[in-house]
Design brief:
- By secondary structure, the protein is α+β, with helices and mostly antiparallel strands.
- The protein is 40% helix and 12% strand.
- It has 2 domains: 32 residues, no CATH class; 44 residues, no CATH class.
- It contains 3 helices and 2 strands.
- Strands 1-2 form a two-stranded antiparallel sheet.
- Strand 1 and strand 2 form a beta hairpin.
- The termini are far apart.
Length: 84
Amino acid sequence: MQTHHFFSVYTVLDVVHTKSDNGITNYAGRRKRKPSNWNADETLALTNLVDENKHTIRGKLGLNLTSNLKNRTWQKIVETLCVG
């Protein structure tokens, strides 16, 4: 059995629209990127702080690692970023 596809392409906000015979519509393509709220130094600082605390942030909750400890660790990261 041979399938036929109908493809229509249009550019609205750089989006490619394809529609097949079965009525399924797919959207693919580039979207306009929102500018970052962080500069390179801030991003690097955040990455370093998360890396230093990854055992706490990403660790499995248990007797020695509580959600309260995770929240306090995130709060320390936030305070460090705001001060620095």
